[in-house]
Every structure is written in C-alpha cells, then in structure tokens.
From TrEMBL:
Alphabetical keyword list: ATP-binding, Cell membrane, Membrane, Nucleotide-binding, Transmembrane, Transmembrane helix
Residues in ABC3 transporter permease C-terminal domain copies: 294-408
Protein name: Macrolide export ATP-binding/permease macB
Membrane topology term: Multi-pass membrane protein
Molecular-function annotations in GO: ATP binding; transmembrane transporter activity
Keyword hit for Transferase: no
Segments crossing the lipid bilayer: 27-47, 290-313, 334-361, 381-403
Length: 416
C-alpha cells in the first residue's frame, strides 16, 4: 500500500510539473476534457433542475385527475385525420357524468381559454388567458382566494356575469386597490369582480396568477360549446381509494353509450390522466439526458485523445529516467501505475475545471431566471468526476503500458 501511495505522490508531482512547465500544451490537452465534462454535466444539471421544477409543480396535483377531451395530451396511435373528426366534449356530457358516474369526487366543464383583452378603469391588458369553467374547478385545482370569493354553483349554472382574477392580473388592473365589486370588460361585455386568487408564483404551465376565470355558462350564451363548437374538456377527480383502472373502464363505456357508439366503433375521445403526463415528462427528460451525453461525448472523445497525446510526449521526454528506474529495480507495474496515475490526475484536473464552470453558470442562471432554480447536485458532481477519471484511465493505459515495456538499456541509450 505504501508503494502505491508513493507512486501516486510521484505521479501527482509529475502531473503538476507538466502543468507548470508546459502550460500551453497541457492547457490545450485538458481543454477537450474540460469542455466535455462541462457539456455533459451542464446538460444533466439543467435537465435535473427542469425535472425537479416540473415535479414540484405537479406535486400539488392529484395524479388521478382525468381530462376527457378530443385531444390527447401525449403520443397516440390514433391517426391525425381520425382525431380531427372527433366531436368536442360538450356541457351536456359533463351533466351526464355528474348524474350517472359513481365514485366521482368532483367534475367540472372547461372551455379551453382564449387570449382576450381585459379592460378596467382606463387600464387595458392584452393577451390575457380567460378560462370559462364551472365552479367545481375551485375544489379540483385547490384554489385559495386572497380577496372575495369564487363563484358559486348557482352562479356557475346561471352563467352570472362575474369574474375571478388571478393575482397578477388584479395587481396590473387595480394595483393595491381592492378589486372586489369593480367592473371589468371581457369579450366586449361587463363583468363584476367577485374574487382575487392568492399568488401562486411561477409554474411549469401557465400560472393562475395570469389567468381570469368566468362561469362556463356565461360564455356559452354567445359561443357554441356543442360537438362542433369551441374546444373544451371535462375535468374529473375520482374519489380516493378507487380502483382507477376499473373506474376509467366504466367511465369510457358510459360515455360511449351516451354518444350512441356501437361495440365495433373506435372510441372518439381521450381520457388523459395527470399520471400519464408525468410519464410523458419522464420520457422527455430521458431523451434530453441522452442528447446531453451525445453532445458531451464528442468533446470527451477529443479530450481523451488530448490526454493520450500528452502522455505519449511525457513518456518520450522521460525515456532515460524510465531506463534508470528500471535498472535500479523498478518493476513494470510500478512504471505502468506511475504514468497511469499521471493520466488520471490530469484528466481529473480537467474535470474539476469543467465542474467549476458548471457551478459558476448555475449561479448566474439561477440569478437570472428568478423562480427557476438551476442546481448542480452532488450526484452530478460525482458523475462528472467519475467520467473524468475513466477518461484518464482509458487515455493513459496505452502510453503507460508502452512505458512499462521499455528495455532499460535501450531506454537509457535513447535518452542520451
């Protein structure tokens, strides 16, 4: 063990001397490893940070929540032309599910929001997402109200001209003033503000802070929400401890029967689950990680050739010294480990520089993006170090082996 520690110490000294005496050559050789580790770990850290932020945003959602719509939230085998002919989910189907499907905790009907202009007291906001939805969304999304209240089931059913503002929208329209009872104009119609939601902050998807909620039946007065009308969905939250697979099977069959579909007819709607969205996110994250490895792999390959090159040069420069060491009794494995350790140390130094650069970039990125936290995890640091060491081993094995096989007499003569 002491012999190997001495070999490691000498190899470390040789590596440091190589850095000092041949700064430009060593810098160019390590540049590939540094860039490679930086590329791989930067992408992996970015993907991990994105994955963490996505899962934080999804953590507050019930993974069993279902969205019944003509649209699929993920990849599907149904051809595009067939999906285009699917009917829109209707308000009548929402009422049917309310009456006829058991084990439902809450069910809501939503018309996919369009971007509209919102005006009030001389202030005009453009490109604001207006979400026409029934009152049950309050419990499904677990909204919390800052001022006033959310609209009731009676107001939802009657299509009352009321509106609930997201925190950000209310702040832009009324600043610090109380928004309750104020009039806003949306769709060219006047609505009364009855509530302002609590601040949610940045979200993976559109934050409720920048949305406006109105009763779906208010919009249905002047928009067609039938099978060929505006796009919409039924949001359904099953009761806890329900067998989701059996529940979904019953739900699909009842909705097929309501639509008058025969046994051989293909289902013309999708039941999208939040758990399926998480699976889709995991697949995307996996693909992004793979792309990161491919991008960084080329730089690592170049860096490996650079380390191998500097080690061959080092063997050439120290041929006489190798001959003297062997003539004094140094074994082949001593010479092998000496150069192998040197290659690993050089690659490790390049890897540390790459990790340092990723750390600097993560700090800058986090400060610029605000709510998005770019994190360089301990796992990624260990992975980067392990990749650097592996590259050093692979790149140094051939030069180290060639040095260990030198004949001592020939080595001393060549050095002279």
């Amino acid at each position: 063990m002491l012999v190997y520690l001495r070999v490691f110490k000498e190899s470390f000294n040789f590596a440091i001397n190589a850095l000092r005496n041949n700064k430009l050559r060593t810098f160019l050789s390590l540049l590939g490893v540094t860039i490679g580790i930086f590329s791989i770990i930067a992408v992996l850290a970015a993907v991990d940070s994105l994955d963490r932020n996505i899962k934080e945003n999804l953590s507050g959602l019930d993974m069993n929540t279902m969205y019944i719509s003509k649209y699929s939230f993920g990849p599907t085998d149904v051809p595009r032309w067939q999906r285009d002919n699917f009917p829109q989910t209707s308000y009548q189907e929402y009422e049917f599910i309310q009456r006829n499907v058991a084990d439902v905790e809450e069910v809501a009907y939503v018309i996919f929001g369009a971007r509209e202009t919102v005006k009030s007291e001389g202030v005009t906001l453009t490109n604001i997402e207006v979400v026409p939805v029934t009152s049950e969304i309050y419990d499904i999304e677990e909204f919390k109200v800052e001022q006033g209240r959310f609209y009731t089931q009676a107001e939802s059913y009657s299509g009352a001209a009321v509106v609930v503002l997201g925190y950000g929208v209310a702040e832009k329209l009324f600043e610090n003033a109380n928004a309750i009872g104020k009039q806003v104009r949306i769709y060219g119609r006047r609505l009364t503000v009855i509530g302002v939601l609590k601040k949610f902050g940045a979200q993976l998807f559109d934050s409720p802070d920048e949305k406006v909620y109105v009763p779906a039946n208010f919009v249905r007065r002047f928009m067609n929400s039938g099978p060929q009308g505006v796009p919409g969905a039924i949001i359904l939250k099953p009761k806890k401890d329900v067998d989701i697979a059996a529940f979904e099977e019953v739900l699909v069959q009842k909705l097929r029967n309501y639509r008058g579909m025969k046994y051989e007819d293909p289902t013309n709607f999708f039941v999208n689950k939040m758990s399926g969205l998480r699976d889709a996110v995991d697949n995307i994250i996996g693909m992004m990680n793979m792309v990161g490895w491919v991008i960084g792999g080329f730089s690592i390959l170049v860096g490996g050739f650079g380390i191998a090159n500097i080690m061959f040069v080092s063997v050439k420069e120290r041929t006489s010294l190798i001959g003297i060491q062997k003539s004094l009794g140094a074994k082949n494995k001593f010479i092998l480990f000496q150069f192998l350790f040197e290659a690993v140390i050089l690659a490790f130094i390049g890897g540390l520089i790459g990790l340092f650069l990723v750390w600097v970039v993560s700090i800058i990125a986090s400060s610029m993006t605000g709510d998005f936290k770019f994190v360089l995890s301990l796992g990624n640091m260990v992975l980067g170090s392990a990749v650097a060491v592996t590259i050093g081993l692979i790149s140094g094995i051939v030069p180290a082996w060639s040095a260990s096989r030198l004949d001592p007499v020939e080595a001393i003569r060549t050095g002279m």
